[in-house]
Amino acid sequence: MELFVDDVDVSVDFYCDVLGFEVDRRAEDYVSLRRGQVVLGLGPVAKLPEQAEGRGFTRQRLTGGKGAGVEIVLEVDGLDELRALYERCQQRAAISEEWGLRPWGLHDFRLADPDGYYLRITHSDSAAQGR
């Protein structure tokens, strides 16, 4: 998955310092981050064309809410890791929806990244212990 962001350095700081990603590789206008099996690309909105024909990404298209209508779900390995990440996020980010047990049997919480991409942090069903 690749997210187009306003400031790549701010986003790298958020994903690394808050969510525990690590820089996998970095180029002048692109950063690849990794956390376990999740790979996330970050590219600057500024590299996109101002406007274009068709449905591709453009700067004009991203002037509205980035990721509107999309929830990015990140799974961690278990409740202990989820709880630790939640506590870390409480100190460093604005939580949109507090930790809770959902009707589908998993715990999660939600927050937005610096560009407004909406993230749900949860644990895998195979690690659903202590429900």
UniProtKB/TrEMBL annotation:
Gene3D superfamilies: 2,3-Dihydroxybiphenyl 1,2-Dioxygenase, domain 1. Residues 1-124 form the VOC domain. PROSITE patterns: VOC (PS51819). InterPro entries: Glyas_Bleomycin-R_OHBP_Dase (IPR029068), Glyas_Fos-R_dOase_dom (IPR004360), VOC_core (IPR037523). This is VOC domain-containing protein.
